[in-house]
Description:
This protein has four helices and two strands. It is mainly alpha-helical and 124 residues long. A hairpin with a 6-residue loop joins β1 (56-62) and β2.
Amino acid sequence: VRIEVVEKINFNQKAQDFTDNIFDIANTRVEQMTDAVRVNIIGNDNIETQTLLNDLESKVTLSPKGHQVTLETASNVSGNPDGHRGYAPVVEYGSARTRAYHNFIPAMELITPLVFKDLKKIRL
């Protein structure tokens, strides 16, 4: 039996390239999602628009074991002096006193298919 190695594949480099591609996609798309939320907030003529707009944050995180990447666009209103804790969900989904102003859901629906399209393009 004769074995001939014709090409040595650097699997560590391929894994690193894959991770780099994922983070590039995630960082690009999470910023686009945040921009889409901003557009929706302004377009929906939301009540207290500045509360949501001023505190929008984008974040990409990797799970502790490295199996999951999370893209997050959130409105962190915890520092608001008027105490608007839970404000964004009430605006998004509505309440007994106000109608729903969908800002985050349409942005997510717009960006999610783009993320999947990007992931399909990755070649190792």
